[in-house]
């Protein structure tokens, strides 16, 4: 029995380059829905033709999403099923779809994700940068002042920072990153992920900029830039607090160990408690 149900909006991830990077579930869904909402029907036509998918398409892009969302909502309310796809990857990730999904959910209509390719996750997994905590920042501004302002607001962030970037602005963005984050901050350029000329290179920012500047081939295609977060410095006070907590936690519960530490080392109970929780994890 098909898992597809009437009056359901499916958010379907499609390949970001290699056409083989699509699940059988995604193919079946695209074949069985009543209509496919595509960012660019001509672009998506290649994928649908490759997998012999004849489902009719309707365009939903940044310029018509508001109006088309109403049209698709009406069709869903009539019992039809709809699949939303972007040009590549997972819809809504720096692509249209937020207005549609929000509107559909407001009317209590089922929304089902069909997971798959996503450029930022693929790049992060192969970058060699810390992946336990990260922040996706989308595209930086094309204007230098606004771009630098955004970077300056992130300079002390300890998470791995992930950006999408146009190849035309790649060199300018790297130049600003060197100026704001420093030449030694580790970064990764993941270019043309899953495609023929895939390149994933991790270097200090200054070296990455020099490499990109000297090789015009690295200024082509789809780009993901990842920057390592600032390394948190452990103070001598924190070392002393951690040492005492480590000893006390062997005999006392978290709350009591934190209270004793706060009293003896003249630190706030909240600080001691938070540090104790981290040690217990």
The SSE string, one letter per element, is EHEHEHEHEHEHEHEEHEHHH
Low-confidence stretches: none
Distance between the termini: 44 Å
Q: Mind telling me the CATH class of the largest domain?
A: Alpha Beta
How much beta, percentage-wise? Answer: 15-25%
CATH topology of the largest domain: Cobalt-precorrin-4 Transmethylase, domain 1
Cα radius of gyration in angstroms = 24 Å
Please state the average pLDDT score: 93
Per DSSP E runs of 2 or more residues, the count of β-strands stands at: 10
Structure commentary:
The protein is α/β, with parallel strands linked by helices and 281 residues long. It has helices at 24-32, 41-50, 65-77, 98-106, 119-127, 144-154, 170-181, 205-214, 236-248, 254-265, 269-280, and strands spanning 8-12, 35-38, 57-59, 82-85, 110-114, 134-139, 160-165, 186-191, 199-204, 223-227. It has 11 helices and 10 strands. The protein has a 5-stranded parallel β-sheet, sandwiched between helices. A 5-stranded mixed β-sheet has the order 6-7-10-8-9. The relative contact order is 0.11. The mean pLDDT is 93.
């Amino acid at each position: 029995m098909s898992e597809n149900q009437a009056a359901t909006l499916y958010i379907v991830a499609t390949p970001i380059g290699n056409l083989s990077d699509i699940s059988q579930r995604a193919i079946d869904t695209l074949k069985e829905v009543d209509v496919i909402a595509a960012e660019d029907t001509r672009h998506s036509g290649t994928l649908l033709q490759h997998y012999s998918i004849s489902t009719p398409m309707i365009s939903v892009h940044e310029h018509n999403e508001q109006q088309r969302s109403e049209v698709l909502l009406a069709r869903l309310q009539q019992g039809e099923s709809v699949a939303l796809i972007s040009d590549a990857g997972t819809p809504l990730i720096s692509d249209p779809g937020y207005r549609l999904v929000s509107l559909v959910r407001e009317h209590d209509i089922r929304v089902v994700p069909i997971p798959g390719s996503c450029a930022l996750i693929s790049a992060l997994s192969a970058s060699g940068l810390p992946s336990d905590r990260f922040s996706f920042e989308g595209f930086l501004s094309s204007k230098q002042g606004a771009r630098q302002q955004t970077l300056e607001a992130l300079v002390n962030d300890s998470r791995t920072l992930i950006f999408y970037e146009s190849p035309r602005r790649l060199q300018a963005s790297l130049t600003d990153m060197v100026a704001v984050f420093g030449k030694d901050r580790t970064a990764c350029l993941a270019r043309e992920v899953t495609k023929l000329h895939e390149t994933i290179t991790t270097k200090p920012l200054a070296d990455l900029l020099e490499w990109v500047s000297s090789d015009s081939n690295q200024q082509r295609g789809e780009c993901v830039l990842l920057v390592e977060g600032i390394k948190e410095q452990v103070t001598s006070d924190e070392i002393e607090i951690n040492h005492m907590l480590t000893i006390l936690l062997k005999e006392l519960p978290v709350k009591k160990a934190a209270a004793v530490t706060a009293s003896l080392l003249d630190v706030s109970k909240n600080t001691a408690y938070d540090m104790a929780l981290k040690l217990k994890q």
